Write the structure tokens for this entry.
Amino acid sequence: MAQFEPNKAINKVCDAASLPDEVRTVIIAEDEHLLARSLCEELEGLGYEVLGMASNGKKVIELARENRPDIALLDLRMPEMSGLEAAKVLYEGMGIPVMIISAYSDREYVEAASDIGVIGYLLKPVGADSLRVSLSVAWRRYLEKCQVKDECKQLEKKLAERKVIERAKGLIMQSLGLSESEAMRRLQKQSRDTRRPMVVLAQAVIDAQELMEGAMAPKD
């Protein structure tokens, strides 16, 4: 396997909770039919389900839309649309991770693949053992990055909610002349009484304030 480091920013549609622990389904893009057939047989022999084969980048995108595989294995150089071009569409647009299988180990290709989010780069000829190990390692790496992405999203959500609550608390303090702790307890009590999340109530306070300010604003 070529020296390879996946891109720093994992795809925004990645959702670790919805992904299987291991690769189950695969699609292939290879313009040489005999190589595609050989790769298909190796994958099936390893227990993977091959959902289809395509001879170029455009066709593999259509195949991905129809089948939604866990992963796509793409040749680098293909007619009509290259493997890298197709990988960008599959990964960024559809959330389908990609492994490149190519005879070319040039640094520029490997770096370009890394930049667009390819999770593995395997050199031809590909043996069954190498294919199995490479797929497993690449998938684990992908799951780990998805998990990190999900954790970051959760943290961002909590911070955003905290800002809303803090703003609403300030409005309550100002309008009712309460201390910070009193305003917070008021929000917490209302949340318990109404069985609604505190951030929802806080946003309602902000919306009401903005509505009132808008109504009081001088008309042209």
Remarks:
- The longest helix spans residues 128-176.
- The two ends are 69 Å apart (CA to CA).
- Residues 16-149 form a domain with the Rossmann fold fold (CATH 3.40.50.2300).
- The first strand starts at residue 25 and ends at 29.
